[in-house]
Amino acid sequence: MEQFLIFDNVSYPVLSMLVFTPILGAIGLFFINSQYMMKIWGLFITLLTAVISIPLYTNFDSTTAKYQFAEVYRWFPTINLNYSVGIDGISILLVILTTFVMPLCILCSWNYIDKRIREFLFAILIMESAMIGVFISLNTVLFYIFWEAMLIPMYLLIAVWGGPRKDYASIKFFLYTLIASVFLLVAIIALYINTGTFFIPELMGRNFSFSFQIWVFLACALAFAVKIPMFPLHTWLPAAHVEAPTAGSVILASVLLKMGGYGFIRFCLPITPLATEACVPYLIALSLASIIFGGYLALGQNDIKKLIAYSSVGHMGFVTLGIFVLNSAGIKGAMLQMINHGITTGALFICIGIIYERTHSRDIKVNSALGMFMPVYVTFLGIFSLSSLAFPGTNSFVGEFLVLLGAFSKSKLVGAIAIPGAVLAAAYMLRLLQKMVWADSDGHKHGDGSERGLFDLDLREKLTLAFLTVFVFWIGLNPEPLLNIMDESINHLLIQYNDGISQAVESSEGLHHALRAFKGFIAG
Amino acid sequence: METVVTGKLMITIMLPALAALWIMFFSGRPNLRDAGAIVGAVLTFGSIATMIAPQIISGGHYSFTLFELVPGVNVSFFIDGLGLMFAGTASFLWILAAIYCIGYMRGLSEHAQTRFYFCYAAAVCGAMGAAFSANLFTLYLFYEIVSIITYPLVAHHQDREAYEGSKKYIIYLMFTSKAFLLPAMALIYWQCGTLDFATSGIAEGIFAGDASKALVIAVYFLCLFGFAKAAIMPFHNWLPSAMVAPTPVSALLHAVVVVKVGVFSISRVMLSVFGVNLLSSLHLGLITAYIVSFTILAASMIALSKTDLKARLAYSTVSQLSYIILGVAMLTPNSITGGLIHITNHAFSKITLFFCAGAIYVATKKKDIRDMKGVGYQMPLTMAAFGLASLSMIGVPPVSGFVTKWFLALGTMDINNMILLTVLLVSSFLNACYFAPVFIGSFSRMPETSANLEKSPLVAMMVVPLFITAVISVCIGIWPDLFLKIINLLVDTI
Questions:
Q1: Which residue, of A427, B328, B331, B454, is most buried by count of CB atoms within 10 Å of its CB?
Q2: Which residues in chain B have their CB less than 8 angstroms from residue A430's CB?
Q3: Does the distance separating the beta carbons of B186 and A392 come in below 8 Å?
Q4: Do the beta carbons of residue B87 and residue B128 sit within 8 Å?
Q5: Where are the alpha helices (DSSP H) in A360-458?
Q6: What number is the ipTM of this complex?
Q7: Within an 8 Å CB–CB cutoff, is residue B32 touching chain A?
Q8: To which H or E segment does residue A70 belong?
Q9: B12: closest CA among B36, B61, B46, B39?
């Protein structure tokens, strides 16, 4: 297994430190009594994790597709199970996204959460460990453990600190994800029985039979499609987003949804290329449906959070579209779109949390005409809204453009169908922006009319949003470093994928005629 | 004849942005704030003027790359004669408009003046960026910035009418750019591997010789209708709706900056992405000429039926913008000259007309043409300027519009197309039909009080700029040499 790994990027086990720092921090919470100190401690731990993750970026070797910063420890030798972690150009950005978003989650909950603060921070920190764990696992069992470990703290975040319909939303979230991930477990066991290994790189590039691939693919794809979420399995998302506290929404939008896209790229494409090939038309169709449907539904929402939630469905449709057009531009665009969505939509949820703290409503009507009272807030809202509709010069444009490029080079029709999604994005975001900033500015009351009323952002809120604004423009105008980091890994992925298909075509003449046509399509 | 790579050209783009920041910073001190706008405009124009000689006039260029997004997609700038002519016109008129604004905004005691001036300056910044774009992405970036930043200007009055108008405005502009321009860019990049304009000349574009014809045609029409700021029918309706904005906005932005960004973009894409040879071999030029001919005539007809002065001017703008595209679309040196020089000619004349409409409104609160009988006696200088600008629109020598029509007519004869020549003649007649009554009507009856309204200081601040623009539009009609020389550098490469 060593041929897949690089151990010596740094001299200390940085990935394990990333996973275990938040867990230790969570335990540490039980030794603190003051609520204020707990918040400080939570912020400190998440910031510490973010700092620990910086060497990942600086010491990363972007000239190889191998898994770096690797660590392998014996775990259950009898079933050939090791604790093995490592990251490549695909997972590194998602890990860094996670570690950088988490401090913001604590900052945006500073005043928002007023009960059970210890438990809240505990859940957040456990969540962080689990999310990082998912991205760095090189072992299917480890992956699955972390995958399931995310479920409970997220469920609690919604069920305890959520809004009025929190019971419905949290159960729905739990059931959807749990049922889908049971299939993932089945796939993992099937792969183990067939190959005798849990080590993900060793599962790739094997010449499984077509029928085996199809079943494994379907089991995995179901789990990932629910997570990302793909139309028609998306209905848990608006419910969960609307009821979750701000931090929960930010985690959901910024990181949790990315698990699905990551899973597709890490599992489906390299392990089951033939099955992917066979299912591509359906997956593209579903992606397009997500784009159009998500955008269309977002257009009709009066609840700001719901609007952003449906816009996420649309954005994630672009991600899956990029993945399944199966060319370099498309997958790079999809990766970038995932990062961008994490930044932009996370920021939008923070913005909504800020206004909710002031007016105690998420209704667009109640929160309209803010321009006069909260100019700084409105400026940030404008920047992130424009970013969300892929305004040129902002981060999302680059991702969306690459995905469209990939789509058009696969098929003009696919590209043409995706375009209305981009138009809809402009329509619903500008509608939201227009109403929140301007409409009905003939003086209606905001909130409950209490003394606090509307006041502009304080320093904590400004810093939170300013931090994300930097990335909006940085990625928007200079995405080259990010694209370089993922370049080698994505090329390797496409080579693996194409090899998987050509091997199968060579080895069995009786294989589906259609597959050969597909191969020509890819090559051409 | 060489290209100089210099970051200095960023100064021209940054100056309006700095002016905007200045305006925001001094929002509490109106005199300092408004002076900032004027100084910013003067400096912007000055920085452009220094670039004309000797570099641009001798056929050289400036270029600069700010960011590289992915290979072939950059934020980069390139200055040639065409861009400089547009930027120079816009920034020069900004000086006069900035003075005019003071009279207008204070004369009517408008609210939210800081926001107004801020967006005004930022829109000019967007126009400078668009004028200096070296590729389609940069052009798109600044095109969209102009769309967004002018939205608060259109919605300035914040009443129902303003919201309706601005909604229409943003829907038209955003829909077309997202639905048409975005796929066009993706397809061009996919086909050519770059979005950079061809800088060596306008004969050849960036498409390879073996590019699929169907694709090129599709991309061409996506671009033509994607830049809806050029107000080609059927995507023209945002322009009359945008007239709910205060008149200085209609004057500088919806007669010069915004709409000219649209026609400039289309001209640029036709000449530097597709190239004259490709367009003529696919007959796309002639098809475009017929499409815009329809716009010219139909918009003129509609203008006749409008009695609100600004609405009439708006439809006149729709029609006049299509002259520019018509000239470029005929693809002969003469016609391209006529089209491109109209960017400047129309700018000076139309801004005069809008300035007049605004001055009349501030002085007399009259918007409807039928109510303006006798205004000529109260505001003689204003109406004189109005008359001169109308002559330019009609194309009477020696006012600047004549130069345009002369070259356009030569162009139609170059390609022996009597239909297009007829369109020119008929449209000139229609122009006369809807402008002459306004002018004549204003002197048709003695007003009850014949006191000269132009003497109040705030109105004077509006009359002086509009008289200057009117005089200049005569001057550039008599001495169009500088512009002809700049355009010749471009058309000589055919």
A1: B328
A2: 170, 174
A3: no
A4: yes
A5: 375-388, 395-410, 412-437
A6: 0.90
A7: no
A8: strand A68-76
A9: B46
